[in-house]
Amino acid sequence: MSPTDLLLWGVLPYVVLAVFVVGTVWRYRHDKFGWTSRSSQLHEARVLRVASPLFHYGLLMVAGGHVLGLLVPKQLTELVGVTEHNYHVVSLVMGFVAGVAAIAGFALLLWRRLRNVAVRKATSRGDRIVYTVLALVMLAGLWTTTVDNGVRGPYDYRETIGPWFRDIFLLNPHPELMAQAPFDYKMHAALALVLFALWPFSRLVHAFSAPVHYLFRPHIVYRSRSGDRLVGNRKPQRGWERV
């Protein structure tokens, strides 16, 4: 293992983690009004209506795949009866679908931002930097999925990258594990570290304010003003029950 590998995979992750945590806390305490995605829906909504769900749902699938691949040990999936072959097939297919969806949605969002003058003028220099890094991260991730796990044959990253990632949070780093990984995976991981270092200082912080609680809140009961009929012409939907 070279000194560069030690710095990249043994020291840099902790530097990025410190910047991510401290930067996020600082941003929330001192820039609450800037804690937003700065929505541009008022400028253009037709493309956004398609591109935004495609990008965000694809990204959620990508994040779920990373959680399963990096945080869940290989021994645990084998314990519940998931063979290495089955895991590889599922990760290859789902990873490809999720990656293509996220990149397609992101490409549409960029095209919309470049095409619409008002949206383009609302793009800051920091946005351009973050968008560039995010695009490179997603492209590198799709490359590792399709090439390293598909064309070149399966690479069992749960033997090297997964343990390296978990050991970072256990304060027991093993940079030599990441040093054994293919160059494509190293590039993907390095770009991801850059992205997380930029995260607290960009519009990406709005991910922490996603209205997840809306999925679990009880139905809101509406009552018409007259008490006898519903206001408007729409048919009653679930949760519109009158009392």
What's this model, at a glance?
This protein is mostly helical and 243 residues long.
Instruction: Give me the secondary-structure category.
Output: mainly alpha
- What is the chain-wise order of helices and strands? HHHHHHHHH
- Strand residue content: under 5%
User: So how many helices?
Assistant: 9
What Rg do the Cα atoms give?
22 Å
Report the helical percentage: 55-70%
Distance between the termini: 70 Å
Please provide the count of β strands: 0
Tell me, briefly, the overall form.
globular
Biggest sheet statistics: none
Instruction: Give start-end ranges of low-pLDDT stretches.
Output: none
Summed over residues and divided by their number, the pLDDT gives a mean of: 86
Describe the structure.
This protein has 9 helices and no strands. The chain has 243 residues and is mainly α. The longest helix has 32 residues. The protein starts with a helix and ends in a 45-residue tail after the last helix. The mean pLDDT is 86.
Highlighted features:
mainly alpha; 9 helices; 63% helix; globular
Write the layout of secondary structure elements.
Layout lengths: L2 H28 L15 H26 L2 H6 L4 H32 L1 H5 L3 H27 L9 H9 L5 H5 L3 H16 L45
